[in-house]
Amino acid sequence: MSGQVRLAGVIGWPVTHSLSPRLHGYWLEKYGVEGSYIALPVRREDFSTAVRSLQREGYRGVSVTVPHKEAAFAIAHRVDRAAKAAGAVNQLLFHEDGAIEGLNTDAIGLAASLREAGVSLDGKPAILLGAGGAARAAVLALTMLGASEIRVLNRDRHRAEVLVSNLSSAIDTDLIPMGLEDWHKIAGDSILVVNTTSAGMKGTPSLDLRLEALPKTATICDIVYNPLETDLLKRARAANLKTVDGLGMLMHQAIPAFKAFFGVEPEVTPALRRELEEALADG
Which stretches within 76-193 are classed as H helix? Predict the structure, then answer.
């Protein structure tokens, strides 16, 4: 590689499971960009030091995954509206003047993935499962899709109330905090359910929700992409409901990162999805 090579990566702990290097590597090859994007395993206590070091070494920036999204928000000198609303950053850009800019592209990625799947809310209600950082980004995505009302369900109702309290002034859509016990009251007219919890990931049980209570036209989205088909999505398919996995969100949220790091705006294509599906199948 010449001295003009552009450097970027994904920082997390653990990070070996991340598909981001495969994703960005595919685009680097496709667009003929002289660059490198690597996985950067960094412990929670070393995050700040690692970021400063990468900045000094000439990196253009880094993608940020768990458990560092809140720390990335704290270290950034300025953040965009989505990051401010979510209280979390999934992309850090290093500027020549030494400033660190924090972005949250998760909301854009989720909204684009749902649109790609043909999902449109158009003034209808949606259910959001979870009340963490990912849920905050999902609130913005559902607002972009025109939700009339977002019903925030969480095991701990108080956490749902905190999320609603923090975001209500930032968006126009009505946010309603609820507990999982309220599912049967609201499922009947909700045309979209988005799961942002870790329930259903490898080794964890799925949320015990009666999917048959939903309209037959409802869509179930799980932002998890490993496994690609979570238990929630399997049950949704068995109930003949439309499903959207987390791979679309991953691909679409990476578009602004790749453009900022490498100067080219990439496209999400069926070939890219096949590449990532193969990576998941290979383990």
Answer: 81-86, 106-116, 133-144, 157-167, 183-186
Helix and strand numbers (H, E) in the chain are 11, 12
* Distance separating alpha carbons of residues 245 and 241, to the nearest angstrom: 13
To which H or E segment does residue 221 belong? strand 219-222
Query: In angstroms, rounded to a whole number, what is the distance separating the alpha carbons of residues 256 and 252?
Result: 8
Report the amino acid identity of residue 245: D
Query: Active-site positions?
Result: 69
Structure tokens at 34: 């002289």
Q: What are the tokens at 194?
A: 């988005």
Q: Hey, what are 84's tokens? A: 């401010």
Residue count of the chain? 283
Q: Where are the beta strands (DSSP E) in 42-123?
A: 61-64, 78-79, 91-94, 100-103
* Rounded-to-integer distance, Cα 121 and Cα 119, Å: 7
Q: Which two tokens stand for residue 106?
A: 């998760």
Task: Say if residue 14 is preceded by a cis peptide, omega within 30 of 0.
Answer: yes
129-169 tens-digit pLDDT: 999 888 999 999 999 999 999 999 999 999 999 999 999 98
Which pairing describes strands 242-244 and 78-79: parallel, antiparallel, or unpaired?
Answer: unpaired
Supply the DSSP symbol for 188. Answer: G
Phi, then psi, of 267 in degrees rounded to 5: -115, 145
Please, are residues 231 and 252 in contact by the beta-carbon 8 Å criterion? Answer: no
Asked, as a colleague might, if the bond just before 67 is cis with ω within 30 of 0, I would say: yes
Alpha-carbon distance of 240 to 242, in angstroms, equals: 7
- Verdict on whether the full-model pTM lies above 0.90: yes
Taking a C-beta distance cutoff of 8 angstroms, is the pair 180, 155 a contact? yes
